[in-house]
Amino acid sequence: MDPNPKTHPILSYVMARLPSLGPKPPDPSFDIEQPPQPPPQQQPPPQQQPPPLPQLTDPALLSTMRRAVGDVAQTRSVLQTLGPRPDHETVDTAKLKISEIESNLSKELEDLVLSPRPSDIDRLEWRAHLAEKEKKIREEAEKERGFYKMVLQLDEMHEEYEKLLKEAEEKLVKIYDKAERGAEKEEEVVVEEEGGERGGRGSFDRGKRGGKSGFVESETQNFT
């Protein structure tokens, strides 16, 4: 359910660094009076995923990207609660079942309308009876159809989530490109400033050498 690092590298990196949505529930077997002893050997922490692009190490840029994918994180949390995406066979079966239920419903309602009114029952009473029976038939059909509709809705939610991942990755790419262009401009300014300082220092040195040479020539002429 998490974005694939191969197809969504930046999004996968950013979402792996999102904070937890809630506190971790306590272990029911934990006894505050008798805390468990630490294991004899601590396992080394797992290695973190390296950034796919160098600028992602910038905390400010990473914070901006986290805010940009907030809707993706919320949708992922909901889908984690609802469950994984149903396979194609399950979806096809749900569509077939819904079609059968609707077909049976139409037939039952048609039979109900065509059913003859007993002679000993008043017309208004018969209409009320038909309306009540139609209501029950529809409720039973909707109840039977409810599970299969949930399957299709879950599949649609996962489909929309896939589109959301693609859009989020494109958004993060634009944010990264903008940050990278800004970093390149800063580097150009630094290079220009350093070049200007070197050029000014060279002119000053040449001026000093020129002034000293003129002074020597003047003293030589006066001496002769």
UniProtKB/TrEMBL annotation:
Disordered: region residues: 16-58, 180-224
Ranges annotated as biased composition (Acidic residues): 185-195
Domain of life: Eukaryota
Biased composition (Pro residues): 35-54
Sequence ranges of Basic and acidic residues compositional bias: 196-208
Protein name: Uncharacterized protein
Protein source organism: Salix udensis
